[in-house]
Amino acid sequence: MTLTVVDMHTGGEPLRIVTSGYPDIPKGTILEKRAYVRDHLDHLRKLLIFEPRGHYDMYGAVLVEPDLPGADLAVLFMHNEGYSTMCGHAIVALGRYAVDEGLVAKQEPITTVNIEAPCGLVVASVEVRDGRAGAVSFESVPAFLLAREERIELAGYGLIEFDIAYGGAFYALADCHQFGLEFGQSRVRDFVDAAAALTERLKADFRLSHPDHADLAFLYGTILTDGKDDFSDEATKNICVFADAEVDRSPTGSGVTARLAAMHAKGVITVGQTRIFESIAGSRFSGSVVRRAKAGPHEAIVARVGGRAYYSGRSEFVIEADDELGRGFLLR
């Protein structure tokens, strides 16, 4: 077996794009394709994402045949736990990749790339100058605040206040200071432990629903913030811990979308206003509320998130028949 990939990163967060060697996936909706890959091809996720070719925090993308009218390409996202429904850092990278690889006709100064994700159609806008693709921004599916200022008693941390918001995936949002944490002073490990504890507790005790499909109704992770939602003139920091305690090096595109939905619902950001969101690694995304929308019964927004992706390598991976460790393992 031989698989070829292109590796990119957006704000430090890796994206491994499969370019050849993946088996054909049966026709159907994007969620049906996601289910098929999960049920029949998960060994390939482990081969690409896990050691010795990847690592605990690796992220990947498989391009599939689009089902939605007007989509230029469709994508399935994969990580250390399985398959997510939306990934903004991947959209930024795939927007540039699609232009560079000729998957869409190149237009200056902006090339539009319509990308079908499991959450729905995401529209990426790629800056093109002198034939070269640059920064990318995207408008995702309607985002909304599901739960506002809820409280739970969390073992080891005490009373924690949180929101739950949807930005293509559901996230818990909480001020890191409640956990005794401070950006620039506390260990990343301590952020991870706190976020993972909140995620696991809410998965057990907080029932989610989504108006479009039951497959979208799961808590993807927790985003711990610096609590500066109310400040409109400075960058706000956050760390996203998702899947099986995976740490996003970027500010998290779907997470920024979810934060914008929560901030707009609370009246601290207006339509047309832009905020800067900074990751644990120091990379930045811009985020703004483009317009109001509806998501079933929920008041929602459409957000625009922007960033920059870069290439980091191209590889050809093989596996020998008797290489058991080569099929993928994780140490942490």
H/E element order: EEHHEEHEEEEEEHEEEHEEEE
Note the gap between the termini: 27 Å
CATH fold topology of the largest domain: Diaminopimelate Epimerase, Chain A, domain 1
| Count of folded domains | 2
| Uncertain stretches of 5 or more adjacent residues | none
Strand tally is 17
- Corresponding CATH architecture of the largest domain: Roll
Specify the CATH class of the largest domain.
Answer: Alpha Beta
Instruction: State Rg.
Output: 19 Å
Explain what the structure shows.
The chain is an alpha+beta fold and 332 residues long. It folds into 2 domains: 2-140 and 311-316, Diaminopimelate Epimerase, Chain A, domain 1, CATH 3.10.310; 144-307, Diaminopimelate Epimerase, Chain A, domain 1 (Roll), CATH 3.10.310.10. It has helices at 30-40, 42-49, 88-100, 188-205, 253-265, and strands at 2-10, 13-20, 60-64, 73-78, 110-117, 120-129, 132-139, 144-154, 158-166, 170-175, 219-225, 236-242, 246-247, 274-278, 284-295, 298-307, 309-318. The chain has a 17-stranded mixed sheet that branches. A hairpin with a 5-residue loop joins strand 14 and strand 15 (284-295). It is globular and about 50 Å long.
Main attributes of the structure:
single chain; 17 strands; 332 residues; alpha+beta; Diaminopimelate Epimerase, Chain A, domain 1; 40% strand
